[in-house]
Amino acid sequence: MNVLLDRGRDHAIAVFRIVVGVLFMCHGAQKLFGVLGSKGAVSILDWPSGPAALIEFVGGALIVIGLGTRVAALIASGAMAYAYFVVHQPAGLLPIQNKGELAAVYSWVFLLLAFTGPGSWAVDNVIAGRRQEQATLVGANA
């Protein structure tokens, strides 16, 4: 059973990355563009909601396509940790009390992606493959 599950690990991580990235992008789009049931758009200059919306939208997009995944995920994780501790935590100690479950979960999810990487189907993998091909060609010609 473990062998079967291990074989699908990179694909499962990729699906996980894409789904979470799309959901994160939706939060950013909601805030930036006033869509998806939003009460209105926020300015990117409004602290902290503007920069958070930009991180959510752009970071989510990068995570979806798998470009700079580890860095984007680390920044997104930090943004969500900030959101939890600054926005939610003063309203109560536990996430269930302060309505910060989503910020807490996103923070941990993105930290996990920063460590695991993008899985398969990522632009990061295409770039790494091309770099390896170029290095092999340079090494063969030397």
Description:
There is one protein chain. Helices cover 75% and strands 0% of the residues. The chain is an all-alpha fold. Helix 2 packs across helix 6, helix 3 packs antiparallel against helix 4 (69-88) and helix 4 (69-88) packs antiparallel against helix 6. The longest helix is centred in the N-terminal third of the chain and has 25 residues, at 9-33. The chain crosses the membrane at residues 12-33, 54-85, 105-123.
In total, how many beta strands? 0
Q: Could you estimate the helical fraction of the residues in percent?
A: over 70%
Proportion of beta-strand residues: under 5%
- The coarse overall form would be globular
Output mean pLDDT: 93
List SSEs in N-to-C order.
HHHHHHH
Backbone structural class: mainly alpha
User: Low-confidence runs (pLDDT<50, min 5 residues)?
Assistant: none
Q: Helical segment tally?
A: 7
Largest sheet: none
Radius of gyration: 18 Å
Oligomer: single chain
What is the end-to-end distance?
46 Å
Subcellular location: Cell membrane
Main location: membrane
Family: Belongs to the DoxX family.
Organism: Saccharothrix lopnurensis
In short:
Its main location: membrane. It comes from Saccharothrix lopnurensis. The chain has helices at residues 2-7, 9-33, 49-65, 69-88, 95-98, 101-116, 123-141.
Secondary-structure blueprint:
Layout: H1 2-7, H2 9-33, H3 49-65, H4 69-88, H5 95-98, H6 101-116, H7 123-141
Helix pairs in contact: 2-3, 2-6, 3-4, 4-6
Subcellular location: Cell membrane
Organism: Saccharothrix lopnurensis
Transmembrane segments: 12-33, 54-85, 105-123
